Amino acid sequence: METTTKTQGTSGWDRYFHMTERGSNLGTEVRGGIVTFVTMAYIVVLNPLILDGQIHGGVAQGAAQALLEEVAYDQDGNPITSNLADYGFISAAELPSFEVVHMETPTPRNPLGAKGIGESGTIGSTPAVQSAVVDAVSHLGVRHIDMPATSERVWQAINAARK
Question: With a threshold of 0.70, does the pTM exceed it?
């Protein structure tokens, strides 16, 4: 079961949270064009370094899916993103800083109490980032932007909302 809810933050910015059955929560805030991620994982921490790497990589992949990644085709069905020079991907330079908060809740299903964590950042970050982009331009009348939310698609959505 997955749900995405929108709540008004105390600072006045909208915050987006995505909850998955795996027990992860990712919040995204946008202020002045700067995106901030906050993610919380409910697990038993066996190796904090590996855990943080899994979460950071998952959040990066999910943000890239929302903002950049697309396999595009021309009108004849030929791929025009056939190599990494044409394909949008995200690096550490494009990612905002984010904070990981560990909240340990062991599972009764195994002796270690451990759970998987690899997908938690990926699952939550894509809808959180996409929702934040739409929310950032909603005051202009934009209600939807197809993924990925490239600068061209955002610009087209703003122009379409003005008509």
Answer: no
